[in-house]
Design goal:
With 70 residues, this protein is α+β, with helices and mostly antiparallel strands.
Length: 70
């Protein structure tokens, strides 16, 4: 199974030099942040450093998905 993580962020910017009003606009992608999200997901799923996921981890994850507790 392949998992892809993409994060689309927004940033608040001032619309004038007087700094009275702001707008939200898309910000640039952050590959390091996306990699961190993926790393944390892998840790949560129980992936070891060599990429191995134990059978117990897979079973526990499937149970959480089936019960909606994830």
């Amino acid at each position: 199974t392949d998992i892809y993580v993409t994060h689309r962020g927004m940033e608040e910017v001032f619309t004038s030099t007087q700094r009275e009003n702001t707008i939200w606009q898309p910000r640039a992608n952050d590959p390091e942040l996306e990699a961190e999200f993926l790393r944390r997901l892998m840790v949560k799923l129980g992936v070891t450093q060599d990429g191995y996921v134990g059978k117990d981890t897979v079973t526990a994850f499937q149970n959480k998905l089936n019960t909606g507790s994830l």
